[in-house]
Amino acid sequence: MVREAVQSLGPASRRDIVNYIRSKYGDVKESTIQAHITLCTVNHPSRIHYPPNKRPRDCSTLTNHYDILFRIDGRFEIYDPKKHGRWLIIKKDGKLLISGPSGPMETKGRLERKVTDKGLRTGFLSPEDLGNFYLLISSFERELRGFIKEMLGKGWLKRLRNDIPSIVNRWKDREKRDKRWGINPEAELINYADSGDYIEIIRRYKRIFTESDDELSDVITQLKIFTNYGRNPLMHCRSLDQQKYYTTQSAVNFLREWIKRRCHTR
Fold first, then answer.
1. What pTM does this model have?
2. Segment 74-83, tens digit of pLDDT
């Protein structure tokens, strides 16, 4: 489906691909499509986390049906080795990496933690994996809060009170509940935010946080993936497996790149 979408559309954004597939094939889960895009993109560093890409190979031979796409400037086109160069999945110092004409794409340790051997054997996360998963989710959420405050400016809380008072009121209610239970309140009200609050803020100030409606839609989708595959299952002690781990990690990587782009355009 992904190949068909890009062949029909030409260079396409994630949103273009999702819209094409869902319009033609019905209610396909968006998270499934997003994961398949990452899985099939030869120069996407996170593709190594998906089972079909767990062994070294030369993607430029085009013998593997998962070596389909090439990403450039946030858009995806059909991978052509003559145009895009030779891309491989290699093993270096015991870990898998994506390698292109300029050499291996080194991944940043804090973003690309691997499931432990025990987790790989059982399919479920070990205590060490759960600790890494918690660090991934909590560190990103703190980054997201800081990013929202920075983008809204020094008077960010006053701005939210004026424009979206319902959010601030919910945060105050949560703060009051802490006080009733004898819990020291959070230093900042935004620490009471949940994923729905982040999405509502980004939608309300979409011109500040995104460049286009397509980017807005992609950001919201990735925040929902982060929430439904990672944040909520972890915080509510639900079953966690490799798919949730790596899908969440991919969403966090996407969102961190978005934050970096927006900070650089200020």
1. 0.62
2. 789 999 999 9
